[in-house]
Every structure is written in C-alpha cells, then in structure tokens.
Input
Amino acid sequence: MDLCHAANSTGRFYTDRALERGESPMRVLRMEMQQWVEDNAAGLELIGAARTYSALSGIAYRDTDESGNETFPIRQRSEFGNVFIDWDGG
Output
C-alpha cells in the first residue's frame, strides 16, 4: 500500500511533517522491512525459509572469494600429520 501511495505522491510520506524532515520514502520502507525480517527471522526459518547469511560470517570467516569461488583453509590438518580415523562412519 505504501508503495502505491509513494508512486502517487500521497500517503504517510507526503504529509507536511514528513516532507519537512526530508526522509526518503524508499529508505524508510527498506528500514521497516529489514527490521520486520530481523524480528521474525527465527520464525521464518522454522517454517522453511532458508538463512544463508550468518551474523558471524563476515567477522572472521569467508566461504567464497571476491569472484564467488569456494575458498579453502590455507593450512590443513593433514599438513601436520594429523590424520583422523572416523570409527563411526560407514
């Protein structure tokens, strides 16, 4: 509904107060949508929505490079002779 009003320069973004503040209607809508998704992320995941971005993925771990190719650890356990046997695996 807000998008229809914004397209026609009407609605809550075109009141005198909103125009005085100079807020961009699309910026406000994006912020509201983002907040709604964040507030409901756990429930959306429980009903089947995929979560592909972890809040921690950008801090110390990247699973792809700049081109989108999968990355791998520079140092790996086998390099140091640490070879493990999975006794439970079939």
Q: What stands out?
A: The CA atoms of residues 27 and 33 lie 10 Å apart. The longest helix spans residues 25-46. The helical segments are 2-7, 16-21, 25-46, 57-60.
